[in-house]
Design a protein that fits this description.
By secondary structure, the chain is mostly helical. It has seven helices and no strands. α1 packs across α2 and α5 runs antiparallel to α6. The longest helix has 33 residues.
């Protein structure tokens, strides 16, 4: 019971900041989730903590993880308004899964590699070796969560919901990238 008041205060503060400063709040949340996912992935792998991936996931979340989804969710609400179009959920989901997800996966893989200090050629090589595996996994595992997000989560909380899902996704991406690096160095 004593723990509930600080938690409620934290939630209230978060929601207030989300309302007053949506992009900054979403970006910081995405940074924290990305770092946590990278750390958790490294701990689960049992190989020690490397700072480069943590930095890459954190920086990606801070710069792109809050802004791009924020504007994306605003865009799909304008493109497919609930009242004005037939089957708005299906249209939003198809647009997100077939247009946005492939672009974001390519952008994410390339940008994470660059933020880790890899040059353009090495980042492209990593992108080419991981892209279809990651995109297929994205379609397979994240479609369900995106349906829930688009159907039931209020627009203001959609980025937060996907950030929570993104914790597991960051662990998956980090492990795939680590496996790819081991394979290349062998």
């Amino acid at each position: 019971m004593a723990l509930s008041k600080p938690i409620m205060n934290l939630v209230a503060s978060y929601l207030q900041n989300l309302y007053l400063h949506p992009i900054k709040t979403k970006s910081i949340s995405s940074c924290v989730v990305g770092c946590a996912g990278s750390i958790a992935s490294q701990v689960v792998a049992g190989e020690g903590i490397k700072l480069d991936p943590i930095f890459a996931f954190g920086l990606y979340g801070l710069i792109f993880g809050g802004t791009i989804p924020h504007y994306f969710y605003e865009l799909i609400e304008r493109l497919f308004p609930h009242e004005a179009t037939a089957f708005p959920l299906a249209k939003k989901l198809i647009f997100e899964r077939l247009v946005i997800a492939p672009l974001m996966q390519a952008f994410s893989l390339y940008t994470l590699a660059r933020f880790e200090g890899k040059n353009h050629k090495a980042a492209l090589k990593q992108l080419h070796s991981l892209y279809f595996t990651v995109l297929e996994a994205n379609w397979k595992w994240l479609t369900f969560f995106q349906v829930i997000n688009l159907a039931f989560v209020p627009p203001m909380l959609r980025v937060l919901f996907m950030n929570i899902v993104g914790f597991g996704w960051a662990m998956f991406i980090a492990s795939k990238r680590r496996q790819n690096q081991k394979k290349e160095s062998s």
